[in-house]
Amino acid sequence: MEPIKIEEIYKEMCEKKNKSLYFYTYSVVKSILEKSYFPYLRDAKPFMTDHGIGHINRILEKISRFLMPHVPLEGNPNDRILDIENLNLLMHSILWHDIGNLYGRSNHPQNICKIFNEVKSFLYDSLYHEWILKIAKGHSGEGNIEKEIENISYVTIYDSEIYPRFLAALLRISDEIDEDRRRIGERVISIVPEANQPYWRFCFCNESIIPAYEMNTLSGTALEIQINCRMTVDDIKSKWGKNDSEVKAIEEYISRIYKINQERVYCNKFLRQQTFYFCEISRIKLKITICDDSNNMLDNMSFTFTDDEKESDFFNNDDAKSMLSKYGVI
């Protein structure tokens, strides 16, 4: 597998800052979790979408894209990127954020500490214990970033200003958008229990969900999340089981896109509070392609979610109404 860009940057920064132990520790922790813990996540919850090493690596890919304009410039390795202490905390928080699922889905952010607290003293300087855990626990749950991290602009570790809320928001939104086909791999959807199927079918519809920087001649560079959805005619006309009932696939699909948009709005509160030239995420651009059973395109449309859009706005959009009417959905 190709090295993940942010890991390459992290390793290089550690070497240049004489902090090679940081990357060594990260590599050891990642390897141990991959071999001795992550395989049991599927055993604990067999029909949950991937929360193992593949999920970790895809989050790292998202982080790489979010930080793309902030990588070190030639001849100035410290320019425009989180310093080594911030990046070190972020990388370790990513590794630990889902380990609480070993104890079940309910309250899984709080359950991280059941394993982390047993091993933290062997792995990390005591200055990091609190912040790795807080950043990781902020990844899920309503208002958890504020609940876990007090209203502070920064803390100081080894003369570095650490921005824990920013780091938690970056992890949280990257985790939230790992919802494309890779999340379910090659597993057969038909064997998944009905209660779990909406999660799987949502991922299956998404060819990709990526952060992207787009140039706009009026406002400069904008950071957005681009979602490419592909459905067959049968897919868009189908119904998904949910809470002992059935809902139209497109209604459930859009409700999940709306949830991602709500997370974008929530995380922006903390992404805009830091000092590293980071753009807040301005919108979600959704492209839906309808294809036949041979994967030939029949129709496509686009819709943009900004801060003000509601779920109903999609269904009131003229292009959406025309497409849904054409295929007998409405």
Explain this structure.
- This protein is an alpha+beta fold and 330 residues long.
- The protein folds into two domains: 5-176, Hypothetical protein af1432 (Orthogonal Bundle); 189-326, no CATH class.
- It contains 14 helices and eight strands.
- The strands form three sheets. The protein has a four-stranded mixed β-sheet with strand order 3-4-7-8. The chain has a two-stranded antiparallel sheet with strand order 1-2.
- A hairpin with a 2-residue loop joins β1 (155-157) and β2.
- α1 (5-16) packs across α5 (84-96).
Chart the SSEs and their pairings.
Elements: H1 5-16, H2 20-36, H3 39-44, H4 53-66, H5 84-96, H6 113-123, H7 126-137, H8 144-148, E1 155-157, E2 160-162, H9 164-176, H10 197-205, E3 206-216, E4 220-232, H11 233-237, E5 239-242, E6 245-248, H12 249-271, E7 281-291, E8 297-305, H13 311-316, H14 318-326
Parallel strand pairs: 4-7
Antiparallel strand pairs: 1-2, 3-4, 5-6, 7-8
Helix pairs in contact: 1-2, 1-5, 2-5, 4-9, 5-7, 5-9, 7-9, 9-12
Summarize this structure briefly.
The protein is 47% helix and 18% strand. It has 14 helices and eight strands.
Question: What's the shape?
Answer: globular
The count of β-strands is 8
- Helix-strand sequence: HHHHHHHHEEHHEEHEEHEEHH
Which regions are unreliable across 5 or more consecutive residues at pLDDT < 50?
A: none
The CATH architecture of the largest domain can be given as Orthogonal Bundle
The biggest sheet amounts to: 4 strands, mixed
The span between the termini is 44 Å
Helical element count? 14
CATH classification, class level of the largest domain: Mainly Alpha
Identify the strand order in the major beta sheet: 3-4-7-8
